[in-house]
Write a structure and sequence with these properties.
Blueprint: E1 14-16, E2 23-24, H1 28-33, E3 39-41, E4 46-49, E5 63-65, E6 70-73, E7 87-89, E8 94-95, E9 111-113, E10 136-138, E11 145-146, E12 160-162, E13 167-170, E14 184-186, E15 191-196, H2 200-206, E16 210-211, E17 217-220, E18 235-236, H3 248-255, H4 280-295
Parallel strand pairs: 1-3, 2-4, 3-5, 4-6, 5-7, 6-8, 7-9, 9-10, 10-12, 11-13, 12-14, 13-15, 14-16, 15-17, 17-18
């Protein structure tokens, strides 16, 4: 178990205890007394139970990583008090109760990683417009229902959006293509319907980082096939199949590509992940914080 005495280290700046096999609940004293803490990483342990409501006392926190545990319950409202937080990683736990409205208070958040939790709830009930600095949003396999709200298109700095393996429905809004920084979009394994109305330029920009298969009632306009940029695993719209305008060899070549493309992110944010594109940004953030700690 994590010793409650850690909460007496009131001037502690960084606490990293990842992968140590700790079990039991997170001590209330740990969350409530360390107001100067900048980094808290308790990932890859066996921690269980709910998050203490006292987490709101970690007002200086920049990074909170509790991924890969068995934590459960609703996300406490105190998380909304973490106005300096840039990274929230709660992946691979058992959190439920939907997206707490209090998370809208995390105005500095850049990376919100909540995948593989039975959160449930709807995207429509959350004020996405408040998270103007968000660059990475991973909500895959979280039991979400309803439609994708237009408010997500207000996230002008968003680069990575994963909504795959949920119960989302309705049309996929073409407004997602207006996100100027978006470089990865994963929508597979939902109940989306209608026609994908993204332009040829959008598919070129996404490349292999767009996935929307396993949406049986979703289709695409065959015009995008003129350059071979085809959404893998999605059928052409039926009203166009009578007048094919594509090269069958091109379709076969593209369709034979990987249909197992996944939104999975690195299990950790160590230095080895610099080869994975923009994850280097997160590593750089960690380095900046470490340098600040040395100078303090």
């Amino acid at each position: 178990m994590l010793p409650g005495e850690l909460g007496s280290l009131v001037h502690l700046k960084r606490l990293v205890l990842t992968g140590n096999g700790f079990s039991g609940q997170i001590p209330v004293s740990l969350a409530g007394n360390l107001s100067e803490l900048l980094i808290l990483d308790l990932s890859r342990n066996n921690l269980s139970g709910p998050l203490p409501s006292s987490f709101g006392g970690l007002t200086s926190l920049l990074t909170l990583d509790l991924s890969n545990n068995t934590l459960e319950g609703s996300l406490p409202s105190g998380l909304g008090e973490l106005r300096n937080l840039t990274l929230l990683d709660l992946r691979n736990n058992n959190f439920s109760g939907g997206l707490a409205h209090s998370l809208q208070g995390m105005i500095s958040i850049q990376d919100m990683l909540l995948s593989n939790n039975p959160l449930g709830g709807s995207l429509m009930e959350f004020g996405w417009e408040y998270l103007r600095n968000l660059t990475t949003l991973d909500l895959s396999n979280t039991g979400l229902t309803g439609v994708i709200p237009d408010s997500i298109s207000s996230l002008k700095t968003l680069r990575f959006l994963a909504l795959d393996n949920n119960h989302l429905s309705g049309n996929v809004s073409s407004k997602l293509a207006t996100l100027p920084s978006l470089r990865a979009l994963y929508l597979s394994g939902n109940n989306f319907t209608g026609e994908l109305e993204f332009s040829e330029g959008f598919y070129e920009r996404m490349g292999g980082r767009f996935a929307s298969w396993n949406n049986p009632n979703l289709c695409y306009n065959s015009e995008v096939m003129r350059t071979g940029h085809v959404p893998v695993g999605v059928e052409r719209c039926k009203h166009e199949q009578e007048n094919p305008v594509y090269n069958s060899s091109t379709e076969n070549m593209v369709s034979s590509g990987s249909s197992k493309r996944s939104s999975g992110l690195p299990a950790s944010f160590g230095f080895s992940n610099c080869i994975n594109g923009f994850w280097c940004v997160i590593v750089v953030q960690e380095l900046v914080v470490t340098l600040l700690l040395i100078l303090l």
